[in-house]
Amino acid sequence: MVRTALVLLLTGLSASAFAGSFAGTSAGASSGGSSASSGSSSGDDKVVLQAREDAAGFVASDGRIRGARLEAALRHLRETQSAARDASDLALAQAILAR
């Protein structure tokens, strides 16, 4: 069940990252409406992407090293992704690294 949740989480994260990247590069700052709407999704993706280094330390230390960026990303994922709510911190950190 955790494996299924992790696959769903990775699929959801990949789709949102692609959408956020597409909106950020295609829409650019050509209009106020498009940059405002893409800013929120790219900001959310940024929280997770910035946690990669902390996630690597967490996984490598078998959960003993917890960085502030990882904590923020875990909180964000659990608030926005239903599949992440029941996943362990280690599973989510591994998913962050797999992105």
From TrEMBL:
Residues 25-42 have a biased composition (Low complexity). Keywords: Signal. It holds the Pfam family DUF2388. Residues 25-45 are annotated as: Disordered. The keyword Transcription does not apply. NCBIfam families: conserverd hypothetical protein (TIGR02448). This is DUF2388 domain-containing protein. Residues 1-19 form the signal peptide. The keyword Hydrolase does not apply. InterPro entries: CHP02448.
